[in-house]
Amino acid sequence: MRWTPASFVEEKKREIRETVGDDHVILGLSGGVDSSVAAVLLHAAIGDRLTCIFVNNGVLRRGEWEQVQKTFRDHYHIRLKAVDAGDLFLDRLIGVSDPETKRKIIGNTFVEVFEDATHEIERDLGRRPAFLAQGTLYPDVIESVSFKGPSATIKTHHNVGGLPEHLNFKILEPFRELFKDEVREIGRILGVPEAIIRRHPFPGPGLAIRVIGPVTRHELEILRDADAIFIEELQMSGLYDKVWQAFAVLLPVQTVGVMGDERTYENVCALRAVTSVDGMTADWAQLPYEFLGRVSNRIVNEIRGINRTVYDISSKPPATIEWE
Fold first, then answer.
1. Which of 19, 76, 195, 201 has the fewest C-beta atoms lying within 10 Å of its C-beta?
2. Residue 136, Ramachandran bin (φ over 0: left; ψ between -120 and 50: alpha; else beta)
């Protein structure tokens, strides 16, 4: 039988029901495409035997903490355990500049918070969930183990981070054989909102690796505002779906500027937008000059703390998509 998104959905729901039986499943939800579509698929298959865990790590984008809860708890009525651990993450990031150290702190703290949340779910249910679901895609595993073979450990994943073996869950990866464009089609079959399906990739360490240098609450707020303006303008101009990924970066560089009659000495914001098929290689997006000018004017005039914007015209390789 020819593969179609609709046939996949029905077959996978049946497979999930048979595999899970009467047990319970937890899923680390990020609000990104992969984990979101996985959550809706699992909920369609097993209903309230799924609980999603959504962690605020303090480095989410503007409005993300509220929006994910509204979508999954209020719209889909999916069991959702939302853990606001932002202060814990940010306190541990104080003074840290090295990007790999940032990633390790965020990853290790996530494991700790996720493990505590699973214990609370276990107490609420009166038994331990047997399965952990992940939105892992074929490109995530192609270099490690064949999707036909066993998965003995939980790999480091760009959405939920690596979880240690001692948690001892059975693993559900319904999209392990698929690519992101196929997952997007499955999301449409399941009625997942286009705002989620079309969402650009977002790194697990979040805005922590887009604040170059030490992460502070103040700089995160500045970056959130700049990023929100960039994304809003892309959407309003019909350009959002024409790029693979777009975001703002706050640089640890201050430059002289003029606001009114006063001299300023504030941060530089870099804008990054790329086109790509799979993220393995990428070209810088040739956005219209007038669009870039409008975004720059808004960021500089509306955000106190930025007085200059630059546009990144580096391709991958040699540059990576993210700056850190």
1. 195
2. beta
What is the three-class DSSP state of 1?
A: coil
Question: Model-level pTM?
Answer: 0.86
Please return the burial class of 168, using the count of CB atoms within 10 Å of its CB with bins 0-12, 13-18 and 19+. Answer: exposed
153 closest CA partner among 144, 53, 28, 101? 144
- In whole angstroms, give the CA distance from residue 267 to residue 222: 10
Q: How far is it, in rounded angstroms, from Cα 314 to Cα 59?
A: 25
Bridge pairing between strands 262-275 and 245-259? antiparallel
Structure letter (DSSP) for residue 211: B
Residue 9, both tokens: 């959905």
Kind and range of the H or E element at 5? helix 5-20
90-104 confidence digits (pLDDT tens) = 999 999 999 999 999
Nearest to 173 by CA among 53, 28, 280: 28
pLDDT one-digit tens code per residue, 212-240: 999 999 999 999 999 999 999 999 999 99
